[in-house]
Every structure is written in structure tokens, then in C-alpha cells.
Amino acid sequence: MGKYLLRRILQMIPVVLGTTLLVYALVFLLPGDPVKAMFGDKPINEAVAAQIRAEYHLDQPFIVQYFIYLKNALTLDFGNTFAGQPVIDEIGRAFPVTIKLGLMAFVFEAIFGVVFGIISGLKKGKWYDTVILIVSLLLISVPTFVTGFVLQYLLGIQWSILPVTAGADPTFLDLLMPAMVLGSVSMAYIIRLTRAEISSNIAEDYVRTARAKGMSNGQVMLRHVLRNSLIPVVTYLGQDIGGLMGGAMITEQIFNIHGIGFLTYQSILKGEANLVVSIVTLLMLIFVVCNLVVDMLYAALDPRIRYA
Amino acid sequence: MTNENLDNELDNSGEPTPEYFMETLPGQDRYVAPIDETPLQDVDSVDESAPATSMWADAWRTLRRNPLFIISGLLIIFIIIVAIAPGLFTKQDPNACDLANSLSAASSGHPFGYDLQGCDVYTRVVYGTRTSLSVGLLSTLLVVALGTLIGAIAGFCGGWIDAVLSRITDIFFALPMLLGAIVVLQMFKSSKSIWKVVLVLALFGWVGVCRIARSAVLEAKNLEFNTASTALGSTPMRNLFRHILPNSLAPIIVIGTTSLASYIVAEATLSFLGVGLPTTTVSWGGDISSAQTNLQTDPLVLFYPSAALAITVLAFIMMGDAVKDALDPKSRTA
Predict the structure, then answer these.
(1) d(CA B305, CA B115)
(2) How many helices (H) and strands (E) does chain B have?
(3) Where is the ABC transmembrane type-1 domain (chain B) (predicted)?
(4) Distance (Å, whole) CA B295 – CA A45
(5) CA–CA separation, B67 vs B50, rounded Å?
(6) How far apart, in whole angstroms, are the C-alpha atoms of residue A156 and residue A253?
(7) What is the mean pLDDT of residues A43-66?
(8) b/e map A207-221, b = 16+ CB within 10 Å
(9) Residue B306: Cβ-neighbour burial (10 angstroms; 0-12, 13-18, 19+)
(10) Mean pLDDT value across residues A7-32
(11) In this predicted structure, what is the pLDDT of residue B11?
(12) Residue B179 falls within a domain, yes or no?
């Protein structure tokens, strides 16, 4: 197990380096001159421009810039934005908001996805099973931004239950609707996954054996059917954490939440190379670590899987 | 253990039935199953006179009986007709807009009313079909081609080629598609086109197909028919194209069909964010984005393109499910 873990962590290094290089190259190739943009309408003072270029290493070839960035990143110095703010401060301000949003979406999709999936899987063919199935299919087919607008219109404008947009410092209530929107597609997938797992496991021999031994129905469900059915669901949930961080880009845009997604989109538009690369690296690290944790969890939940 | 021994043991264990087992209590029925007299061989033997069937014929038979396939198939045919010949459904020009009509309600000949710019919403919904469908289809084709090629090379060659390609796949896998697409499309801000959106979606989408193609090729490579074919003097390349690829096609087709819907959504999302298609191209995503400002007063302008988008995506998701059920019997959900 320890050896496997070490190998996985070592394998992560080239992936992380490769991804940062890829993103850095992409952002570097963005058109437009950020230094020129800093002067705005004023005439460009060549001496000042050259000094700024030197300060941000913009006069160096791309690969040198990348290694300078990497070297600094190792000492947790991710550089400054073009406005002079340290990148780490910008991220530090936006990240807690997205964590809060992502956590709420995660809890939402996990609870509702599993509960509706179990109800649906146990009572296959009942009218509420059909309703749950249709709703989940709808949620999957409607793009997130449309779901967002529909909820904004219904919950926010028509019925005025929840605030339509969140501000700079959102409260729990402000984030409730965005979290539902962010988690909606994954929730639908979890419902379908749980339903399929429950309904196939319920027909397994070990369930009949457990019943034959005189185990009560609740115990059979809890100890055997649920435990076996939820393994793939846990895997899905773990992999989804990274997806939620990416999906936040759309949701935060719709609801005007000043989190990581909002920051990423703005910095792509402005060509803020340092900021974009740092955020993507951060998201990717979260994604890769989550995958690793899921694989470990998988072994813990399913005794048939052992890593050598 | 020999057969005889086995028989003896079975007899021994079956014979001494205790008396109290045989006693029938009042009100108790005994049911004894009739002995099935069909010899086992008749059940198991292969009917050689029947016409030969292939996996594809089997899959097609399963598909044809699946109501999901019929419904989604009809929907998709309808969507394709609308995309090819939008002129059949509306006589108006989607870009002929009159500001005097801005946000007017539905009237005769204009069932969905007008948007902010005074364009006929119905006409724009009809013309938007072509954009969504072509981006979805082209991206999927490109993704499947690229993913299969890279995956097949990785799985077939193995060794260091596989190691390098797999690491590259890992890198692209860790990068969210939407994020990468926005960064690249931002580069072409001044010269947007459908082709660029397709290429960018393919650039960040091939990973999924590649992984599946690689494992399918790897699995088929080690099967006996491949060894047999090599023993008969076939070259590795011939093996790849004649035996390995046809045998690993099913999972690739499944992921291709299921991901088509996600490319349509991705295109709409990019257009919604304003980095996708040029503003002159009529697209559902773009129309939803511009209708967003008047959500409070005119939600219907936003509703129609959204509904069209949702129905299209739903049709392709159902089709994907049906194809998956037919080609991958192990994953059958119902």
C-alpha cells in the first residue's frame, strides 16, 4: 500500500509539470500586449515599458519565463498580477468563496442524489421512480446556465424565496441557489448510478442468502445492498470534486460570485498569465489528489481490491 | 475425483431421507417438480442451419426493439431535417430584425414572439439547429478519430511509446475542457469561426476516447485470434487493421455516441460566455446569452432556445443510452 502510494505520488510530478507548461504556453501565446494595456490611452513611455517588461521577465523567451515562474512557485511566490497585487492574495481572497460553494454543492448532490437514487432503485416502476428518472434526465440535458436562469427566474424573481445574485461576501443563503445549480447535473448522474447499482445488487445471490438466513429486511439493505451499491457512487463523488471546481466558472458567472471561477474567467480575458497558471495548477492539484484519495478509499471500501 | 465417485457420493447424500421429512402435515401441499426430460445436449447444441449472426447484427436487433432508440431516432431525424433545410420550417431570415418589434409578444406567423433586437425568435431557433448539430457532430467525429488513433498507437506499440502517450493523456485529462477551450478561443478572439470551436473542443476532448481505445486495443491484442493470425504469417499492421481495431470498435462507438450531447452543451456554453462562435452565427447559446439581460421581464425569449437545446441534447443522450445497451450488454441498466 505504502509503495503504491509513493509510486502514484511520483507519477503525479510529471503530470503537474506538464500541465503547468501546457497552460503557461497557452496563456503566453494569448495575443495582446498587457504592458501596452497598462498605459491605457496615454502614450507609451518606452523606457518605463522596458522596465516593466524586465520586471515581469516579459523580455525573456517563453521557456525561460516558465522556469522563472516554476522556481518562484517552489518558494510559494506565484508572482504579481499586472495591477501589482500578489497572485497568492488574489487566490486567497477568492478561494474560500469557491470552497464554500463547492462544499455546499457537494453535500447537496451527495444527499439528494443518493436518497432519490435509493428510493428510485428500491421501487422500480412505481410512479415516483418514473418522475425521478424523468427529472434526472432533464437535469442532465439542460445545460447548467439554463438551469441557473430557470431557478433565478422561479425562486428568485417569481416567488422571491432566495436572493437572485450573490455579492462580494456571500452568505449561506446567497450561495444556496448557486450550489443547487452547480450540483444539479452531478446529482442527476448520482441518482442514475445509485438506482442502477441498487436495482442490480438487489437481485444478487448474496441478498437472497442473507434473507434466507433470517436477516431482517432493513439489515439486508443496510449491510449488504447499500454497502455494495455505494462503492461506485463514492468513486464518482470523489472524482466530481475537481469537476465542481471547474463548473464553478459558469455558476459564478451567472450569480456574480467572486470566487475562483469568476477570477479565472476575468484573468483569462485580461491575459493575466501568472494568475491563470497558478489557478489551473491549484485546481489540477485538487483534482489529482482527489483521484488518489478515491483510489485509496476504493480499496478501503471494497475488500476485493488490494494495491500491491 | 472420478465421475463414478461423484455419482456415488451424490447417491449417498440423497438417499437416507428421514421419515419425518416425508410426513405430510394437514393442510400442507407437496409439490414435486416434473422431471425435465429434454436431454442437455439438445438445449446446448448449436443450430448450424441458422444464418450466421455477428455482434453488429445482434446489436441492431436489440436496438430496433428499444423504445428509447425509436423515440430518440425519430427526434434526431427531425433535428437533422431542420438543420439541413431550415427554409422548410420558416420563410424568414433569422438576421432580418426590426427594432420596432423589440420584445413584441407572439403574433400570427411569429409563434415565439421577438427578442430584444426585434428578431423573430422562432426563426432563430430553427436556424440555430444547424450550428449546434454541426459543432456536435464534427467535434465528435474529430475526437473519435484523434482519440482512436492515439489510443491505438499507445495500446498497440506498448513500451516507451505507450508510456509517453499515456503521460500526455494524463496531462490533458487533468485540464478541464471548458477552461482550456476558453483560453485557446480567447487567442482567436478577433477571428471566431465554427471550425475553431470544433478544433478546440477536439483538442481538449480526445482524452476520454483515447483511454478507452487504448484499453480496448490492449485487450484485443492479447486474444488468441491475434496470435493465430500472426502464426499464419500476418504482419502486425494487418493484424491491427483486420483484427484488433474491428474488435475494439464497440466501446469507442459507445463513448462517441454518449459524448455527442456533451459537445453540443459545450458549444452552447462557450457561445454563452461569448468566446465561442462569431456573433453573426445564429446559435442557441448566443441567443440564450443575449436573452439573459431581459430575464426578469421576458423569460420566454430565453425559454425557446433553451428548450430547443435541451430537446436536442436529450435526444442524443437517449440515443447514447440505447447504443450503450445494445453494444455493451454488461452495462445494461434496465
Answers:
(1) 11
(2) 15, 0
(3) 129-320
(4) 46
(5) 27
(6) 16
(7) 75
(8) beebeeeebeeeebb
(9) buried
(10) 79
(11) 47
(12) yes
CA dihedral angle for residue A109, residue A110, residue A115, residue A118, rounded to 10 degrees: 110
Residues 6+ away with beta carbon under 8 Å from B151: B209, B210, B211, B212, B213, B214, B216, B217
**Mean pLDDT, residues A155-172:** 78
User: Three-state DSSP class for A236?
Assistant: helix
| A157/B contact by beta carbon, under 8 A | yes
In this predicted structure, the answer to whether residue A231 has a pLDDT above a threshold of 70 is yes
Per the structure, how many domains does chain B have? 1
C-alpha distance from residue A90 to each of A166, B21, B189 (Å): 19, 81, 26
Interval B311-331: pLDDT, tens: 999 999 888 888 888 887 665
Cβ contact, residue pair A243, B272, below 8 Å: no
Identify the H or E element spanning B187: helix B177-187
Q: Is A140 close to B292, i.e. CB distance below 8 A?
A: no
Is B235 inside any structural domain?
A: yes
What is the spatial distance between Cα B165 and Cα B168, in angstroms, rounded to a whole number? 5
Q: Residue B216 is part of which domain span?
A: 55-80+135-283+299-327
Q: Residue A246: its chain B contacts at CB < 8 A?
A: 176, 178-179
CATH number of residue B278's parent domain? 1.10.3720.10
Residues in chain A: 308
pLDDT, residue B143, reads 94
Count of other CB atoms within 10 angstroms of residue B180: 21
Residues 6+ apart with CB under 8 A from A245: A98, A102, A260, A261, A283, A286, A287, B176
Helices (H), chain A: 2-28, 34-39, 46-55, 62-74, 87-122, 127-141, 144-151, 172-201, 205-212, 217-219, 227-255, 260-270, 273-301
Task: Examine residue B253 and state whether it is found in any structural domain, yes or no.
Answer: yes
The answer for A 118-137 residues in CB contact with B (under 8 A) is: 137
From chain B, the residues in CB contact with A30 under 8 A are 183, 186-187
**What is the helix (H) or strand (E) element at residue B20, kind and residue range?**
helix B19-22
- Whether B16 is covered by a domain: the verdict is no
Rg (CA), chain B: 29
CA atoms within 13 A on the CB side of A133: 15
Q: Could you tell me which CATH class the domain A92-271 is placed in?
A: mainly alpha
Interface test with A, best of B183, B258, B301, B314 (most A CBs within 10 A): B183
| Intra-chain end-to-end CA distance of chain B, in Å | 42
| Residue ranges of chain B whose CB lies within 8 Å of a chain A CB | 167-168, 170-172, 174-176, 178-180, 182-184, 186-187, 189-190, 261, 265, 268-269, 272-273, 288, 292, 295-296, 299, 302, 306, 309-311, 313-314, 317-318, 333
The answer for residues whose C-beta is within 8 angstroms of residue B245's C-beta and 6 or more apart is: B148, B152, B217
User: Is residue A23 within 8 Å of A32, Cβ to Cβ?
Assistant: no
CA–CA gap between residue B285 and residue A267 (Å, rounded): 22
Residue A36's pLDDT band (cuts 50, 70, 90) = low
**Contact criterion met (CB < 8 Å) for A18 and B171:** yes
